[in-house]
Amino acid sequence: MGGVHPGRGTANALLGLDIAGTRAARSYLELLGPDPEQSPDPAADADPTAPDPTAPALPSALAGVTAPFVQRWAIHPRGFDRAVAVAAEATDPPVDLGAVVDMSRRTPDGETLRWRLTRRTPLALGGIQPFLIDWLDSPHPASRALPTVALAQFWATSPQLADTRAVLAALDARIEVEAGEADALHARLEGPGGTWLL
């Protein structure tokens, strides 16, 4: 377990990632779900069109989620502020990272971790454009002893290959992009329980 996000209605669990046969010290997978100890945030009203409109509301971060999927990914640039400034000045192609937001969560042992990240709504390129994160003085989540799975493949599909690849190159974000009908992220994970394709 990673911890809870106070006031947001969510909690997370973390998995370390083995990439190309090597434990990637600063790479991990975050599984986000509702925190049973918190009420959903006020923005998360029950969906009257859902199959069961009387079901408890999900936190807004999880609204509409009915199955596991890869929503987005992050990169941790060496110079966070510089990377944000460079992206803001980019025009060919334009790169919209959104706002810089301060975040926190409480670990199971009661420690509060603080970080900042860029947030854009809706997600740029359906989540293919990564957000930037700066862990400030908090220990990196992957520095803990985590259960680990292999990230066998991580890729994106997009109907606009050239534009998508240009934005990723502007952020120095390396990910394979294939032609597809919609913007989406995909991952193949391998672990003791078998293979998961998300």
What is the H/E order?
EEEEHEEEEHEEE
Overall spatial form: globular
Whole-number mean pLDDT: 86
The low-pLDDT segments are 44-51
Number of domains: 1
Number of strands: 11
Distance between the termini: 21 Å
What is the subunit arrangement here? single chain
Radius of gyration: 17 Å
Class of secondary structure makeup? mainly beta
- The helix content is 10-25%
Total count of helical runs of at least 4 residues: 2
DSSP strand content: 35-45%
Biggest β-sheet, characterized?
A: 7 strands, mixed
Outline the secondary-structure elements.
Blueprint lengths: L2 E3 L4 E10 L2 E13 L39 E2 L4 H10 L9 E8 L5 E8 L11 E4 L13 E11 L2 H10 L5 E4 L4 E8 L2 E4 L1
Parallel strand pairs: 2-8, 4-7, 8-9
Antiparallel strand pairs: 1-2, 2-3, 5-6, 6-7, 8-10, 10-11
Key features of this structure:
seven-stranded mixed beta sheet; 2 helices; mainly beta
Explained architecture:
The protein is mainly β and 198 residues long. The protein has one domain (3-197). The chain is built from two helices and eleven strands; from the N terminus they run ββββαββββαβββ. The chain has helices at 80-89, 161-170, and strands at residues 3-5, 10-19, 22-34, 74-75, 99-106, 112-119, 131-134, 148-158, 176-179, 184-191, 194-197. The strands form two sheets. Strands 1, 2, 3, 8, 9, 10 and 11 form a seven-stranded mixed β-sheet that branches. A four-stranded mixed β-sheet has the order 4-7-6-5, with helices on one face. The radius of gyration is 17 Å and the shape is globular. The chain starts with a strand and ends with a strand. The model is unreliable at 44-51 (pLDDT under 50).
